[in-house]
Write a structure and sequence with these properties.
By secondary structure, this protein is mainly α. The chain is built from four helices and two strands, in the order H-H-E-E-H-H. A two-stranded antiparallel sheet has the order 1-2. A hairpin with a 6-residue loop joins strand 1 and strand 2. Helix 1 runs antiparallel to helix 2, helix 1 runs antiparallel to helix 4 and helix 3 packs antiparallel against helix 4. It is globular. The model has no long low-confidence stretch (mean pLDDT 91).
């Protein structure tokens, strides 16, 4: 079984799926607890990226996470810099979703 299979990725993605609705509600209520939960979600996303490993970017020559979506580095920095904003939550949700899709694509490619 390859590491990008649905079963292997489930534990990494399940935490976000269970936390995101609570975070959404807290942001809507302007509750500062949302920031604490976002910090945990950001840490979990970093672990997810590390799980996927790195690859060499041909253009920059830098090592980048395999699972990081297009413009992911800039978007992830936006999230961390503006964590108090509801838009950070929206971006993090989008990154998780795009990462899930990328992992699914890699799962098929690696078979």
């Amino acid at each position: 079984m390859n590491r990008f299979s649905k079963e292997n990725m489930a534990s990494h993605l399940l935490k976000w799926e269970t936390a995101k609705e609570e975070i959404r509600v807290l942001y809507d209520q302007k509750d500062k607890t949302a920031i604490q939960l976002m910090e945990i979600a950001i840490e979990d996303y970093t672990k997810l990226l590390a799980y996927g490993g790195n690859e060499l970017n041909r253009q920059s020559g830098e090592e980048v996470p395999v699972l990081l979506p297009l413009n992911g580095h800039e978007r992830f920095n936006f999230i961390k810099e503006r964590i108090q904003s509801h838009y950070a939550f929206i971006q993090l949700d989008a990154l998780y979703e795009e990462t899930r899709k990328k992992a699914a694509r890699l799962s098929v490619m690696k078979k």
